[in-house]
Design a protein that fits this description.
The chain has one domain: Ribokinase (UDP-N-acetylmuramoyl-L-alanine:D-glutamate ligase). The protein has helices at residues 41-51, 66-77, 138-150, 167-170, 180-184, 223-236, 241-255, 267-274, and strands spanning 4-8, 12-18, 34-39, 56-59, 61-62, 86-87, 93-99, 105-110, 127-132, 154-158, 175-179, 193-197, 203-205, 208-210. The protein is 30% helix and 24% strand. An eight-stranded mixed beta sheet has the order 4-1-9-10-11-12-13-14, sandwiched between helices. A four-stranded mixed beta sheet has the order 3-2-7-8. Strand 13 and strand 14 (208-210) form a beta hairpin. The radius of gyration is 17 Å and the shape is globular. The protein is of the alpha/beta class. Bound molecules: alpha-D-ribofuranose. The site of alpha-D-ribofuranose has 15 residues, from strand 2, helix 1 and strand 8. The site of alpha-D-ribofuranose (RIB) has 15 residues, from strand 2, helix 1 and strand 8.
Amino acid sequence: MMGTVVVLGSINADLVVQSPRLPLPGETLLGGPFVTYSGGKGANQAVAAARMGADVRMVGCVGGDPFGVELIAGLVDAGVDVGSMQRAEGSSGVAIITVDGRGENTIVVAPGANAHVRADGLSWAGVAIVLAQLEVPIDVVRDAFEQARAHGVTTVLNAAPATDLDPSLLALVDVLIVNQHELSVLATPGPAKIVLTLGGDGLVVDGAPIAAHQVSVLDTTGAGDACCGALVAALAGGASLYEAARLGNAAGAVACTVRGARLDGAARTHVEALLGG
Ligand code: RIB
């Protein structure tokens, strides 16, 4: 039976402007349309796992602003359990994003309510995996992973955005998902199995390469999140890490073909088509 995936992480309103190219420091560019999407690495990963068929509970925090209401509704629409979502005074997390004509982006996040999320009082019954990233306080990630370890729950850390991490936190991680830059800022990656994502070049899982899928790229925002979410969905269903990474690799490719940072309701069909199933 498939165990529940708990995703602890950020949830943001993504304020996105398309631009012919990414701006240089001090430069003003005239861009294209402005669009608001639901985002945040944690919530994107929760939605990706749910789109792949997992039973997903999100632990995050929204503000008391209208974004908070929309962000919760977006999770519910995607089938994510919001019973552990929290609310804080003030603004929700917001990400200012520029996407260029090749689908590359720049992102600056104002954490807002994400800084107030807590991991105390979580229920671990039926949970197979907890997945976290680093847009929420590191001490909260540590708290959740210590609880997870005490309950025999697998821990997966996507160490994004890039920062060095204390070895005592890395010792709590079973699977570490990083890109090359994120790996380079870690003094030591710790004992975890490593999934190294290589953008348009696929990924390497525990030393074994998986080739990229060739897709028509519209927007790379959230591709890594789709990979993480799909990977843990497969792990929770009993797949090996290699098979889970194959699904993650395909989900990341599908994410590049749609605008915004989230997988949509058609994603599973597209992922299965890429994998030839
Ligand atoms: O990984 C993409 C995400 O990073 C965006 O949705 C943005 O909110 C930031 O968290």
